[in-house]
Amino acid sequence: MSEQAEGTLQQQVDEQKEKVQQKYGTFAGVFVPTLLTILGVILFLRHGWVVGNAGLLGGILIVTLAFVIVAFTALSMSCITTNIRIRAGGAYSIISQSLGLEVGGSVGIPLYLAQTFAITMYIFGFREGWLYIFPEHSALLVDGVVFGSLFIIAFLSAKLAFRIQYIILAVIIGALLSVAGSVFTGAMQYDVQLWGEFPGAPEDDFPGVSFWVIFAVFFPAATGIMAGANMSGELKNPRKSIPLGTISAVAISFIVYIAAAYWVSRVASTEELVSNYNVMIDKALWAPAVLGGLLGATFSSALASIVGAPRILQALGDHKIFPKGDTFSKLSKNGEPRNAILMTGVIVLITLMLRDLNTIAPLITMFFLITYMMINLVVYIEQRMDMISFRPTFPVPKFVPIIGTLGCLFTMFIINPTFGLIALGLVFAAYLYLTNRKLDVPYGDMRSGLFVSLAEWAAKRVSLLPENNERAWKANLLVPVLSSRELRGSFSLIRNLIYPKGSVKLVGVSGVQESPNLRESLINLTNVFRKQNVHARWSIINSENYKESVLISLQALQGTFFNPNIIFLRLPPHTKYDREILSIINEAKSLRMGVQLYIEDNVAQLGRSASVNVWMRERSPEWDLNMDLGNIDLALLSGYKLKQNWNAEMRLITVVEESEVENAHEYMENLLDVSRLKGVTAHVEIGTFEDALKTAPQADLDFFGLAADPDLEVLRTYVEITRSACVFVADSGRESILA
Predict the structure, then answer these.
(1) Which residues, 6 or more positions from 194, have their beta carbon under 8 angstroms from its beta carbon?
(2) Which residues make Cβ contacts (< 8 Å) with residue 362, sequence separation at least 6?
(3) Lesser CB count within 10 Å: N end or C end of the chain?
(4) Per-residue model confidence as pLDDT tens digits over 450-487
(5) In terms of residue numbers, what domain contains 57?
(6) Per-residue pLDDT tens over the stretch 151-169
(7) Is the pTM of this model over 0.90?
């Protein structure tokens, strides 16, 4: 390696160390924003109402159930982040690296919007607390000032936002100490009601509610575990910080909520708890401290969201999830995604002008839940695949992602089934959109491993089933190739013989004739097949013996799962390879493979691809229809496939003496009926076969049965006589038109 190259590499190492030094650790980057987001407005304004409705045990059960779901999700997130090199975007990065950009983007887009709309919701929550203290202030002005403050802080620097969150953390700790301090004033004078009567809310005149309605109101309090993960691109060591910071924040928050449930059940009567949302403020040792905690909680949640949401948008833009998305991936000199922050600010400003987001508030929660569910699902899939690449440094038991996934899905439909279905529908629509975008994946994901695992499972299951399954038959072609030019001539025919569910295996034989770019040509042709939704694979055998190369391919591929069941051979106009072709045909028959021998009309080629003839030998004197149709099954299946893909006319033709015309017609009509070959017409020619070739209706392609010992020179004359391309077909015995 040159000194210049070494110097460049060393520069990159030094720059990386510099960047890491400028990033955030576990406490500032994950623990504080996660803790402050969970200890939010519901703790200060709705927790007493929850306990008043459900009772102490009911309240503890609600808190525990909600925290079990988010805790298991946090465990799953911790597990997967210790197994990948997580990039910017938090949950979007986790899902994308596992299930691909399409799935990650379909979740990331609504997650970004939910995070952005949540900023507006938090601003509204801050305003309500502010107006409680200063009722004479203008609501619109309060919203504007709060938004301006949040936007300026986020635009300047995430470091400034984290420093402010330290202050807010101190304020919330002060609020909790004020609550705890009331214990020493004799405030805890009421007897505990273990199970409540669920009277409901005062604004609805206490209509009575169920346990699950109370759970639905409380559950958003437990969300917020993504606040730290959203900063994944800004962390010094996300693999360490996200698990430690998130789980610590969830554990401490759970203890706070359980302690607060006991406290409110002792400091106020049930009637007061369900009718007064400000119980925590009124019963605290020093009410202003709790009011400060309420304002700090809503402001910090909004701050965490306005810092985290642009990071998701930046990651989405970096991968061009939407057109012109790279505009939002650009970073300022201090590493801030300024364009993404501006876009987020515009959306928040528009939603602030709407003045009420209560209608779509449940949808925001649904998008968070779908994100949590997908993270659990990612871990579940990775665990089930048992791949050696899954080596998390923070492993979790297999039941964790299962409970997390089911818990998120259950909660979605408990909170609001309608919005749950709408949210899933929007995510699915985004997935379809991104699938059509043909995104360039900048890194590997586990989708190939997932499908390989599914294929292995399917292969094992298939091996236990009967070998011959005529109903599941589909065309899997093996195509020997000497030069790319000859394959290009038959590309359209091969594609339409197998589309949509068949496959093609291209075997290039190099060394037999000059074809310097055979490898590149096979790669290009394989890609063209794939772009037309045809499964295609290629390989090259270096040999100067055409026959031996093809025979080795035939024999070697018999042991594969997707083994070819038809060999497609092109008969050239010269006789150079006739002996080899006959040997290959005989070997294919001995291996119970079908044969399609294609002879092209050099003048008309495949013509308009508008008509197909399938020739059937006559059955006199007995025209009894039975399961053994002779050598006609593969020809009929191939012809009918072309009829479907070309939207062509198809005829079934036979040649008989005049006395057998009626019997032949009846037989053919019965055959077409039991074979369910709709739109195929029966045609009977009278006289000799040679004359019939000249007088029968002309087609763009004719299918004939391949005799046991064919004369290839005679077969070449069929093209001139019929004035069409011809395919001579031999059944394998594993296909049936009657299946």
Answers:
(1) 55, 56, 57, 58
(2) 415, 416, 419
(3) N
(4) 666 666 666 666 666 666 667 778 899 999 988 777 77
(5) 3-437
(6) 999 998 888 888 898 999 9
(7) no
